[in-house]
Amino acid sequence: MIERAKHEMNLVFNALSFFSRIPVPKNVRYSGQSLSQCVAYFPLVGWIVGLVSAGLIVLLMPILGAPLAILLSMAASCWLTGAFHEDGFADCCDGFGGGYTPEQMLRIMKDSRLGTYGVLGLCSILAIKFSALLSLSQALVSTDLLLVLWLAHSLSRFSAVLIIWKLDYVREPSEPSKAKAVAQSIGSKELLFALFWVAVPAALLELNMLAFAVLSCLLVTLLWARYLKLKLAGYTGDTLGAQQQLSEVAIYISLLAAINTGLIL
């Protein structure tokens, strides 16, 4: 039992080390197997990032005002994750915008230089996220806003786990890649365990808001998975980052639209 608990804690630290900049103990054991298994804790990383982001907005809004509080929250989120997902989204914009064949798209995504499509895509999604959060901060009480961000960060990361579960990894085995270690296929057991971390913030959110958040996230996941299957016949690490960003923003937009149209009172 104790050994099992130690093993799970090691997986937690693997997930924190891989998916964020959060410090972990020096005696953490890293291996290909542990990095693959730690995917189930990906939404837990979203727990931490979401709580920090939401907490900063709620705490700083009365002091600095909503716009600056949200910008600082977004900056903190990027710092905590090393802008891991934003970088993946920008690379996808470059790859899908500038490539015509799967090989070209993958080669462009691998290029560390940021192109026009990447800059435009990154600026656009950050601006959309800021605008949506600003509007939500005016439409929701602080408690609901905190829960929405907590859920959005964990649910959007769970959606990336769904992509891993559903699609094949398309990089060559010999090709160096950060995501290759976590790109092993996962089973239903790991998927359900990852879902547990979403269930906790979901249980605290009002049912009508939860429904819109889940439906919008699932819709984006299905559309993105279909697009990846069509264009690449699978996924890469960059496309997982893009999935997280797209689904997070979709959750904010769907909730805002539902509030403004009276579907959520």
TrEMBL record:
Chief localisation class: membrane
Transmembrane annotation, as ranges: 40-64, 114-133, 145-165, 186-204, 210-228
Pathway: Cofactor biosynthesis; adenosylcobalamin biosynthesis; adenosylcobalamin from cob(II)yrinate a,c-diamide: step 7/7
Keywords recorded for this protein, A-Z: Cell membrane, Cobalamin biosynthesis, Magnesium, Membrane, Transferase, Transmembrane, Transmembrane helix
EC number(s) given by UniProt: 2.7.8.26
Catalytic reaction annotation: alpha-ribazole + adenosylcob(III)inamide-GDP = adenosylcob(III)alamin + GMP + H(+); alpha-ribazole 5'-phosphate + adenosylcob(III)inamide-GDP = adenosylcob(III)alamin 5'-phosphate + GMP + H(+)
GO molecular function, one term: cobalamin 5'-phosphate synthase activity
Pfam families assigned: CobS (PF02654)
Membrane topology: Multi-pass membrane protein
Subcellular location: Cell membrane
Cofactor(s) the protein needs: Mg(2+)
GO biological process terms on file: cobalamin biosynthetic process
A single GO cellular-component term on record: plasma membrane
Record function comment: Joins adenosylcobinamide-GDP and alpha-ribazole to generate adenosylcobalamin (Ado-cobalamin). Also synthesizes adenosylcobalamin 5'-phosphate from adenosylcobinamide-GDP and alpha-ribazole 5'-phosphate.
Family indicated by similarity: Belongs to the CobS family.
HAMAP family: CobS (MF_00719)
Protein name: Adenosylcobinamide-GDP ribazoletransferase
Gene behind this protein: cobS
